[in-house]
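Dear support,

I submitted the protein below through the web form. The confirmation email said the job was done, but the results page showed an empty box. After a refresh the structure appeared. I'm attaching both so you can tell me whether what I see now is the final result or a partial one.
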Amino acid sequence: MAEFEYRGYRIRMVFERDWRIKIWPPVRPAQIADKIRATPNEGEALCRQRATRAIDRHLSGRDHPARS
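What the results page shows now:
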């Protein structure tokens, strides 16, 4: 189980049949963390890349739906 910090968020990689993440403090509670997964063949590195990309999208505001 690896843990790292990225842009003020602590991210823990967890392996339970596939790679998943846990984020502190919560980023839109559970929504981002539930979406990010990687198969055992894809590996921890790809899951880490997906986690950092999701945090970047969250911080830039691109993951929010368009407001009318």
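Response: this is the final, complete result; the empty box was a page-load delay. Residues 44-60 form the longest helix (17 residues).
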